[in-house]
From TrEMBL, chain B:
Signal peptide: none
Source organism (scientific name): Lichenibacterium minor
Listed name of the protein: Xanthine dehydrogenase family protein subunit M
PROSITE patterns: FAD_PCMH
Keyword annotations of the record: FAD, Flavoprotein
Record domain FAD-binding PCMH-type: where: 1-222
Domain of life: Bacteria
InterPro entries xref list: CO_DH_flav_C (IPR005107), CO_DH_flav_C_dom_sf (IPR036683), Diverse_Substr_Oxidored (IPR051312), FAD-bd_PCMH (IPR016166), FAD-bd_PCMH-like_sf (IPR036318), FAD-bd_PCMH_sub1 (IPR016167), FAD-bd_PCMH_sub2 (IPR016169), Mopterin_DH_FAD-bd (IPR002346)
Sample GO molecular function, one term: FAD binding
Cross-referenced SMART domains: CO_deh_flav_C
Length: 179, 338
């Protein structure tokens, strides 16, 4: 016997072929062939050159890999890229529009909402998802709704401030428009 | 992660056929638990059948105020559905007490039922585990068992079921609708998850050739008299050490009907109907609630590190029933317990 695996059931001729998958990535139609066991996170980082999305724990415990799929924030490490056929995927690289940073990105700079920056792309994508969900308004609600994003530098107070600033500004604009 | 074949199913029949063609296949929906386990080599499927394109994504009103939840409805969509928030707030609250927003966005209703234990030994392929490799033993019984079960254990396994959502579904008396080669059948929620007994590797009564298609909720009318109280090592994004789902129908200060289920204490959501019966007709208050807690916990067995759960569960049951009686459900944002 070569190794412990030899005692497993007869070898199954699996996973030899790459599978084509098509989705929109940061607005652009994209088709790529990937081995089925490639997570969305590894596809972005290792196959598509988008290293903004970070690999922290790779087990859905830290939130560094948060991206937006069909507008919803998810952990890119816990989904397979080949499952994203037809999806609309947005990463931190795709948040700026026409040369202008996304308001959440601006707010993170204005409120100094990071130190080392490793968790920041996940924090920002998570905040964009949170704001679209529309359930969090108070600082307390923001902290709870952002609890899936860990920051080991402990930049939490400023992250909450930054997110709250964007939510408050959006509410103020809505109020102004209603007048 | 091991290599595997990937099949994208578009109908339930397709999915069942694909699953049946390989005895080591797994369905994938949210993937939040399966892929995690595959990265640890705890799960090593040779075929992964993608069921995310199946038409099981609706929440439908049934007769008489009942609700049919498609197996692929995400945890977050379910928690924030207006009908769920209005008519089944206990379920909404339990879901929002669990995991993170990202995980709830991905995780499915059916997958939540089928998630595996977070027992450290189950996850660590370097140690024996009767659930992962039947017959190898259970190191948790004499080992690190702070998070383990105190009710319904066996000498083969003391793991807990990790779900919050399922604790509410147990209390609300849900039904799990499944489909297999011979058609549909319904499983009462209390019969869906199993106790470990001699076969801890068999966690539910769902057969390998079946798929969950929906979870059905009978009409519920507890008004504000419900709560989901979850106690854990940190206030957010952690599994329960002990949780309690409680719902009461009150007739003035008297309990007319009671539902109570516990999480974090057993291999399945722990609903005790005999304890519920004890409450009916009694004046709501600490005396009655303490009697219920003692009744539920009478068979509890503590191990070297988890005996604290018995006392914690007693207090949690009393507090949860007090919250439910008062109509002051536990907030899942401000979770300080004073």
């Amino acid at each position: 016997m070569m190794d412990g695996m030899s005692s497993s059931p007869a070898p199954h001729p699996v996973g030899m072929a790459k599978i084509p998958v098509s989705f929109r990535l940061n607005g652009a139609p994209t088709t790529i062939e990937l081995a089925p066991w490639t997570t969305l996170l590894d596809a972005l980082r290792n196959h598509m050159g988008l290293t903004g999305t970070k690999k922290g724990c790779d087990h859905g415990q830290c939130g560094a890999c948060t991206v937006l799929v069909d507008g919803q924030r998810i952990n890119a490490c816990l989904t397979l890229a080949v499952m994203k056929e037809g999806a609309d995927i947005r990463t931190v690289e795709g948040l700026a529009e026409h040369g202008h940073l996304h308001p959440v990105q601006d707010a993170f700079i204005e409120y100094d909402a990071f130190q080392c920056g490793y968790c920041t792309p996940g924090q920002i994508c998570s905040a964009v998802g949170l704001i679209a969900e529309g359930h969090a308004h108070s600082a307390e609600e923001i902290r709870e709704a952002m609890s899936g994003n860990i920051c080991r530098c402990g930049a939490y107070p400023n992250i909450v401030e930054a997110v709250k600033h964007v939510i408050d500004a959006k509410a103020a604009r809505r109020l102004e428009a209603a007048k | 992660m091991n290599r595997f074949d990937y099949v994208r199913a578009t109908t339930v029949a397709d999915a069942l056929r694909a699953k049946a063609s390989d005895s080591r296949s797994r369905f994938i929906a949210g993937g939040t638990n399966l892929l995690d386990l595959m990265k640890y080599d705890v799960e090593r499927p040779t075929t992964v059948v993608d069921i995310t394109h199946l038409p099981l994504t609706d929440i439908e009103d049934g007769p008489d105020g009942s609700l049919r939840i498609g197996a692929l409805v995400s945890n977050s969509r379910l928690a924030y559905d207006a009908r769920v928030q209005e008519r089944f707030p206990l379920l909404s609250s339990a879901i929002l007490a669990g995991a993170s927003a990202q995980l709830r966005n991905a995780a499915s209703t059916g997958g939540n039922l089928l998630q595996r234990t977070r027992c450290y030994y189950f996850y660590d392929t370097g140690t024996p585990c009767n659930k992962r490799e039947p017959g190898t033993g259970c190191p948790a019984i004499e080992g690190v068992n702070r998070i383990h079960a105190i009710l319904g254990t066996s000498d083969k396994c003391i793991a807990t079921h990790p779900s919050d959502m399922c604790v509410a579904l147990a209390a609300l008396g849900a039904t799990v609708r499944v489909e297999g080669p011979s058609g549909e059948r319904s499983i009462a929620f209390a019969d869906f998850h199993r106790l470990p007994g001699d076969t801890p590797q068999v966690e539910s009564t769902l057969k390998p050739d079946e798929i969950i298609v929906s979870v059905d909720l009978p009409a519920a009318d507890y008004g504000p008299h419900h709560t989901y109280l979850k106690l854990r090592d940190r206030q957010s994004y952690a599994f329960a050490l002990v949780s309690v789902a409680a719902a009461l129908k009150m007739d003035g200060g008297t309990v007319a009907e009671a539902r109570i289920a516990l999480g974090g204490v057993a291999h399945k959501p722990w609903r005790d109907e005999s304890a519920e019966a004890l409450l009916v007709g009694r004046a709501a208050g600490v005396d009655a609630f303490a009697a219920v807690a003692d009744h539920i916990l009478a068979p509890a067995v503590g191990r070297s590190e988890n005996a604290f759960k018995i006392g914690l569960a007693r207090k949690a049951i009393i507090r949860a029933l007090s919250q439910a009686a008062a109509g002051t459900p536990q907030s899942q944002v401000d979770k300080r317990v004073q």
